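Please, structure for the following, as tokens.
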Amino acid sequence: MPVEVQVLAYAALLQYAQFLLMAVPLNIQLGVEYTSGPRDEAQEARGIPGRLKRAMDNHFEGLILFTIAVAVVVLGEAGSALTAKAAWTYLAARILYVPAYASGIPLLRSAIWFVGFAATFVMLLAAVL
């Protein structure tokens, strides 16, 4: 299995972990009756549960681009040491992003996000150039 695909699998597992990490405090804050209901009237999670939810949503967004990058690298047979390092960098950044976001550290969170975003961009560039 190409390294980039392996890292993609780990990134998907991270998404599951983020969901589980977010679900318990969110259900406690908003109540199981609301979260298991139709949610006709929106309620916003606040504090750490809200930040964990937004971090998870942000990973969904980043995961889309990362998945495209992995597909381009693997299907284009453009895997290299650079694309493998960029994939691992993306994953490390996404792992670090969760506690940075949950703790409410804005500049650090943004810097970590940018590292993951740039790593994905590097993968795409390396594949097409």
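The chain is about 80% helix and 0% strand. The first helix runs from residue 3 to 30.
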